[in-house]
Amino acid sequence: MDFVELEAIEGLRWSWNSWPISSKPSADLVIPLSIMQTPLMKFNELPLLPYDPLICIHCGSILNPYARVDYQSRIWVCPFCYHKNSFPRSYADIGENNIPAELFPTYSTVEYQLGGHQGLVMNPGSNPVHNWANGANGLGKSGALMGSVSSLSSLDRGGSGGRGMGMGGGVGPVFVFVVDGCSSEEELQVLKNELLLIVAQLPDNAMVGLIVFDSMVKVYDLGFSECLRVVVFHGERTLSSNQIIDLLGIHPTKHLIGKTQGVQKQSFILPASECEFNITTAIEDICYSSPLTPGHRSPRCTGAAIQVAIALLEGCSVSNGSRVMVFTSGPATMGPGVVVSQDLNQSIRTHRDINSGHAPFYDKSCDFYKQISQKLTDLSMVLDLFACSLDQVGITEMREPVEKSGGFIMLAESFESDQFRKCLRHIFSRDELGILNMCFDVTIEIVTTKDVKICGAIGPCISLGKKNGSVSDKEIGEGGTNTWKLGTITDKTCIAFFFQVSADQKPQPGSAFFIQFITKYRHGNMGLRKRVTTAARRWVSGGAPEIAAGFDQETAAAVMARLAVHETKTNFPREVVRWLDKELISFASKFGDYIPEDPASFRLSTNFSLYPQFMYHLRRSQFIDVFNSSPDETAFFQIMLNREGVVGSLIMIQPTLSRYSFDGPPEPALLDVCSLSPDVILLFDSYFYVVVHYGSKIAQWKKLGYDRDPNHESFRKLLEAPEVEAEQLVAQRIPVPKLVKCEQHSSQARFLLAKLNPSATHKSSYVDGSEVIMTDDVSLQVFIEHLQELAVQG
Fold it and tell me: Which pLDDT belongs to residue 442?
């Protein structure tokens, strides 16, 4: 079974699928022992169990297929700590031919609907085992759990309302729209139309609030029906949450009588069904701010607006399941979190300014947003950022709260772009039951066998500082814990977890070790769920061939990319490249097959051979080489890499290239300048950009209209094929990539040329007429030759 097939079963990709039995050999592997986990990955078969899980009273692990069960004495032995646990009464009829779903061998991942019973939810008079997986009775894999799933339908479906399916009778998720009033009239109109569409389609019990900011922060009172009423805060002032709550007049003690399921009865945040007319009127009322002073930027207090939004949610006691959604089209120029001054003579900070300490507002603004990030974590809130501007808006400064809360981020040139529309509508998409595809208040806990230590995680999460015996002293990323917090998560969100082998233990080669991931979250219907994934692998002796056979070079590249991005927070790009090179030389020296001091003899086996190529492209990528990117673009690229799975990460690191020609069907092409040709069309996918590149002859024929001539039907089909494929790539990816159609030698072709291997440059002795790239970068071939020379030196 290959690694991709394993991921489809477990939702996990391991850099090493067999681990050495002691700490020294594991440290010598160069690539850390790591697992890329997609906690809420969509599976073909995922049992949804309408009862609470059975938890080991000693180590906190959850009953799983690897537990040993004594059916006669109704006891299960935890595979993590070997502690004996008794089954509760609801499992009275358990037997070898009647096993519950969580013990079914094919279900390494199961999901529990919490708040049910301890044990199985039963119909009156029914036998509890009717809902269990029963292979012996012919239910098999697909038939298992039919009872469980069907009995859950009434629990999970929620009520329905006139605005589409609701989410039960309780309080739904909360959305505070924070709108930049400094956007142009055309931009604002498009944004308002989209917000009106979203509000009209929200479930009845979803709650909404509206804040508009320019030089002031205006909080709309959606419960005041006589006229539009707003509470105004000055954008220059930095206020505490308590001061903002007092000024808004939200006093919990005054509203205890009207308190409903944890939500204070007030009028700034209300269910969409109660305030649809008022919020529609308020959105339509948003207008372009006063005209600009010549030579000045718009007075924009983004930081103050975010601060007010968080305090509003805190004062209304609706933190769980709440999102602050910021829509902005420029940088903050006043108040807390300022990015640049209003004077246009002062240019916005660059990478060089930040590195040299010449960005006057940068450090103070980053500190402000770190405090915001901590507040969001404490209150289980999410910060989403829609940055639609030709200029930078300050993503670099705002990075921490957006990334740590798991908030959605998009970078586009305009609210009028398809990118913005598709992304916003995607966030508010619903499942087949009409429930919003959203999750909130997520925690991920890891339980391991005693030989495995947890070092940390890199991704859209924050450490909760919960230490136990399985937590290592060595910290990588968000470390010092076995539990992490995430504000929200999607079925694509991927976290990289890092481990090491305990120095105190020495397990037997061939024996198994276990790692369990417990993801607790609030579903879109606001019900609590717990998804449990239990995985097992084997210990092997230090130099065993199984270690090399279990190496996943794609996962290793994705993991090293995250580590490199993590390094950029404290080191300059050239130092990060040096670190990557050092690690790669050590890796090649350890796993290469060569005669010492003879570079020509160097070989890497098949499952190692692509790794140096991935590292070559990573060194040149926009994650580390920031020369052609603004600080905002770099922050956006790095945030996206840190939450993307292995396949998406690889496309970001080493983009894909396909060749379309008259010679035959489309075929993969080398990511090399030699792939450029006048009579072919290239389809390039770098995750953030999808480029359709027409060769010079193709472009000329297109201009002459040959594709409209019935005699040239094959040419029309050739033009259509890459465009259809490009549209499909754009449609299925969120955030939506930018689609670029360009001709050979045009300025837009730079998106492709920048990523091609420069095997022929302006310095090469090349044949006249062939394509070259104007660069001083070394080619892949030269890079590999240098690697071989250094690796064989031992």
Answer: 96
Largest Cα–Cα distance in the chain?
Answer: 86
| pLDDT value of residue 163 | 53
Q: Nearest Cα to 445, choosing from 481, 469, 476, 472?
A: 481
pLDDT tens-digit map of 696-742: 999 999 999 998 999 999 999 999 999 999 999 999 999 999 999 99
pLDDT at 138: 31
Q: CA 402, CA 22: separation in Å to the nearest integer? A: 39
Amino acid identity for residue 725 in this structure: E
Q: Give, in order, the Cα–Cα distances in Å from 495 to each of 172, 201, 277, 536.
A: 27, 32, 41, 19
Looking only at the bridges linking them, the beta strands covering 593-595 and 598-603 are: antiparallel
> Which of 544-550's residues contact partners 24+ apart within 8 Å by CB, and which partners?
544/18, 544/20, 544/509, 546/18, 547/16, 547/18, 547/19, 547/20, 547/29, 548/591, 548/605, 548/607, 548/608, 549/18, 549/607, 550/14, 550/16, 550/17, 550/18
> For residues 269 and 283, what is the distance between their CA atoms, to the nearest angstrom?
14
How far apart, in whole angstroms, are the C-alpha atoms of residue 731 and residue 778?
Answer: 35
Average pLDDT over all residues of the chain? 89
Q: Report how far residue 701's alpha carbon sits from residue 716's, in angstroms, rounded to the nearest whole number.
A: 10
pLDDT range class, residue 653, cuts 50, 70, 90: very high
What domains can you pick out in the chain, each with its CATH number? 3-54+107-152+440-545 (2.60.40.1670), 174-427 (3.40.50.410), 553-631 (1.20.120.730), 635-784 (3.40.20.10)
User: Mean pLDDT, to the nearest integer, of 144-163?
Assistant: 36
State the CB neighbour count (10 A cutoff) for residue 776. 8
pLDDT at 45 over 50: yes
Stretch 116-141: mean pLDDT, rounded? Answer: 37
CB 58, CB 526: distance < 8 Å: no
pLDDT at 224: 87
Closest CA to 632 of 406, 350, 355, 345: 350
Q: Give the pLDDT of residue 276.
A: 92
Higher pLDDT, 86 or 140: 86
Say what the pLDDT of residue 784 is: 97
Task: Calculate the alpha carbon distances from 575 to 557, 578, 628, 697 in Å.
Answer: 18, 5, 18, 43
* Burial classification of residue 634, based on how many CB atoms lie within 10 Å of its CB (0-12 exposed, 13-18 middle, 19 or more buried): buried
Residue 331 pLDDT greater than 70, yes or no: yes
Residue 142 pLDDT: 32
Q: Which of 456, 299, 463, 319 is nearest to 383 (CA)?
A: 319
- Which residue in the block uniquely carries the two structure tokens 């019990």? 205
Residue type, 200: A
* SS (HEC) of 328-382: ECCCCCCCCCCCCCCECCCCCCCHHHHHHCCCCCHHHHHHHHHHHHHHHHHHCEE
Q: In whole angstroms, what is the distance from residue 519 CA to residue 39 CA?
A: 7
CA distance 531 to 112: 6
Residue with tokens 């759990």: 145
Q: Map residue 413 onto helix, strand or coil.
A: coil
Residue 405 has pLDDT above 50, yes or no: yes
CA distance readout (Å), 383 to 28, 68, 282: 40, 44, 22
| C-alpha to C-alpha distance for 772 and 751, rounded to whole angstroms | 15
Q: How many CB atoms lie within 10 A of CB 35?
A: 23
